[in-house]
Amino acid sequence: MEWLALLAETPLARALIVSPTVYLLVNAAHIMAIGMLFGSILALDLRLLGLFEKVPLQTVAVFLSRMAGKGVALAVLTGLCLFSVKPTEYIQNTAFLAKLGLVALGIGNALVVHVTPGWRAAVTQGSISAPLRVSAVISLVIWISAIVAGRWIGFL
Ligand code: HEM
Q: What is the pLDDT of residues 85-114, one digit of tens each?
């Protein structure tokens, strides 16, 4: 735990601890990153589940998954900044640990989907296989749960 406590001594953590303005800006950036991630995931997964049929999947699939990827990267970056404020407390927070697990599951699910023939067919022909629809449902459940766990952190 000592090495974790050192995180709170870094200049970045000190800036978030002493300046409420810096903290709120980073927290707002975390929420915007989550919005970018979930907004893209929701649009893509609902399209894979057959909604918005007129929207060409070949066009939006790669665009939305890349936006989601950038959102995850920004959420992890800003999340680590927030985490650095009280790392030894957060690491014992059940909601925080649950969220990290769900985020890892969400990223894992997306990476697995991207190497499947189903994704290739969706991107090249716009066809949607049953396994791809199932992975869209799994993705929605995971990311909604991650957001609920994230909000729950402050209540524990
Ligand atoms: C990538 C997906 C992520 C999602 C969907 C997510 C979601 C959330 C949500 C919904 C909140 C509550 C925001 C608020 O009400 O102010 C939050 C807060 C927070 N997140 Fe994340 N987060 C993600 C990644 C991370 C990562 C990777 C970390 C750390 C390594 C992290 C650390 C935190 C911390 C420390 C808070 C503040 C908790 C508090 O004191 O209220 N987040 N996150």
A: 999 999 999 999 999 999 999 999 999 999
Answer yes or no: are the C-beta atoms of 40 and 64 closer than 8 Å: yes
The four Cα atoms 138, 102, 29, 80 give a dihedral, to 10 degrees, of -150
SS3 category, 86: coil
* Ligand 1 atom nearest to 90, measured from its CA: 35
CA of 52 to the centre of ligand 1 (A): 30
Tell whether the torsion through CA atoms of 59, 47, 134 and 101 is positive or negative: positive
Both tokens assigned to 19: 């300046």
Question: Model's pTM, two decimal places?
Answer: 0.92
Name the one residue in this structure whose structure tokens are 């090249």: 124
Ligand 1 atom nearest to CA at 76: 27
Instruction: Among 30, 38, 139, name the best residue to mutate to test ligand 1's pocket (greatest count of ligand atoms within 8 A of Cβ).
Output: 30
Q: Give the model's confidence band at 147: pLDDT under 50 very low, under 70 low, under 90 confident, else very high.
A: very high
Cα–Cα distance measured from residue 40 to residue 44, given in angstroms and rounded to the nearest whole number = 6
Q: Which of 23, 36, 70, 82 is the pocket-test mutation for ligand 1 (most atoms within 8 Å of CB)?
A: 82
